[in-house]
Write a structure and sequence with these properties.
By secondary structure, the protein is α+β, with helices and mostly antiparallel strands. 45% of the residues lie in helices and 6% in strands. The chain contains ten helices and four strands. It has helices at 4-8, 57-71, 94-99, 129-140, 150-179, 185-205, 222-235, 243-247, 253-263, 266-272; strands at 49-53, 79-83, 107-110, 124-127. It has a four-stranded mixed beta sheet, with helices on one face. The relative contact order is 0.15.
Length: 280
């Protein structure tokens, strides 16, 4: 189905107004304003780390990181995980907005620092999945090169690549392919083109390395965790029903090898369907 003719009749107004339903899966949650919409106190468990999230690709990133730390037996990385149901507007509750003013999952609160005199007895609140990954990696000295230099720079470059690229995949391709109220040829073609280009970037890069930043198990980093949650799951057919065939993901053989290797990790297996506690 093509709506090319209908789209050609649309002319943007001089001043945009939110005066009609825009349709799509998340239409009821979308508004052009920020801030809390209702009062909601978030529960706080006994563990030092409190995660408020959902098992979407962005949420799965942090699940993997925390489960990988658990797999290593890292002291202090225990956590409680609570479900923020974005379909029910949990992200707009006052407690969540206090952690993340942008009202997006995931969000993390670190209570292990409240005895630190330099922190005024307050926990540390972290939002944005890339920032949470980096915060946990540096806090525990795992899955990121700690010394300034080539290895750390490469890791952070690929981490930021994912943060900058995924909106084209999730907000662009995923939205118009799976969630828009009706199929629209131009945006689907536009974002499919960019998504396939990104898949090719990864496939070419992974031709010469086991992981995003090198060879051998010690090269597995937060860059792999962040990228796998989106592109690895896409390559394995776990995102957007029908998209694996549509995008011909099987043709990216090096990406497939990498995606399957990470999917086989015990921490990753636990993370993709991590049990999340209700917030009320």
């Amino acid at each position: 189905m093509s709506d090319t003719n209908n789209n050609s009749q649309y002319q943007p107004a001089k001043v945009w107004k939110n005066d009609k339903e825009n349709g799509g899966k998340f239409a009821s949650t979308n508004r052009p304003t920020a801030g809390a919409r209702h009062e909601q106190t978030l529960p706080v468990g006994a563990a030092p780390l409190q995660l408020y999230s959902l098992n979407t690709p962005n949420g799965v990133k942090i699940n993997i990181m925390l489960e990988e730390l658990k797999e290593l037996g890292v002291q202090g990385a225990a956590y409680d995980a609570y479900k923020i149901d974005i379909g029910e507007n949990d992200q707009f509750g006052s407690g969540f907005v206090d952690i993340n003013p942008n009202s997006k999952i995931p969000a993390l609160v670190d209570y292990s620092v409240i005895q630190d005199n330099d922190n005024d007895g307050e926990p540390i609140k972290v939002f944005e999945s890339g920032a949470i990954l980096l915060y946990l990696a540096e806090k525990f000295g795992q899955f990121v090169p700690m010394q300034q230099g080539r290895a750390r720079t490469e890791c952070l470059s690929w981490l930021m690549w994912q943060m900058g690229s995924a909106p084209y995949l999730g907000g662009g391709f995923g939205h118009f392919y799976a969630y828009a109220p009706e199929p629209m040829e131009y945006p689907i073609n536009r974002f499919t083109m960019e998504t396939k280009r990104q898949l090719d970037v990864l496939d070419i890069h992974l031709q010469n390395c086991d992981y995003m930043c090198g060879n051998g198990k010690e090269s597995y980093t937060i860059a792999d965790i962040a990228i796998w949650a989106w592109y690895g799951q896409l390559a394995l057919g776990n995102l957007y029903e029908g998209s694996a065939q549509f995008l011909q993901v099987d043709s990216y053989q090096h990406l497939q090898r990498w995606a399957k290797a990470i999917a086989a990790r015990p921490a990753v297996k636990r993370a993709v369907d991590l049990p999340l506690k209700p917030i009320s």
